[in-house]
Amino acid sequence: QIKDSHVIIFLGGDQELLISQLKSLPDFFNFEDKVVLADSAGAYALSKGYYTRSKEGWFEGLGVLDVNVLCHSQSLDKTQGWKRKNRKMPEEFEGRPTISIDESCYVEFWD
Questions:
Q1: What's the CA angle centered on 71, arms 66 and 75, to 5 degrees?
Q2: What is the pLDDT of residues 96-107, one digit of tens each?
Q3: 86 vs 7, 12, 18, 56, CA distance in Å?
Q4: Predicted local distance difference test score (pLDDT) of residue 79
Q5: Neighbours of 27 (CB within 10 A)
Q6: Each residue of 18-53: pLDDT tens digit?
Q7: In sequence order, what are the beta bridge partners of 93?
């Protein structure tokens, strides 16, 4: 179904389950001529790395986008909370953009 789709939407939910299921799909990374939307767990899955508050840690995504992602960031204190989370960032996650996405916001990537 992915091959024949023009728009692909990855919704929220369990990011670990989503990542494991996407890894098993053949030609998953072929997004040529497609519009791809991702929300929460979907954004985590497509990122190179992500921070999840539920497990209080940084984890690897599938690396479709070379960015780190933190969703639902509005609940973190903007001056202290994010800095505190960044201090916990493992070395392998440093050196690439980190995107903090508040509720009701989105980020566009064009290729």
A1: 145
A2: 888 888 777 777
A3: 33, 23, 25, 12
A4: 45
A5: 8
A6: 999 988 987 777 788 888 888 889 999 999 999 887
A7: none
Amino acid letter for position 105 = C
DSSP codes, 14-45: -HHHHHHHHHTSTTTT--TT-EEEE-THHHHH
| Secondary structure letter of residue 73 according to DSSP | G
CA atoms of 77 and 85, how far apart (whole Å): 10
52: helix, coil or strand? strand
Nearest one of 64, 76, 68 to 51, comparing CA atoms: 68
What's the confidence (pLDDT) of residue 44?
92
Mean confidence (pLDDT) of the chain = 80
What is the spatial distance between Cα 88 and Cα 81, in angstroms, rounded to a whole number?
11
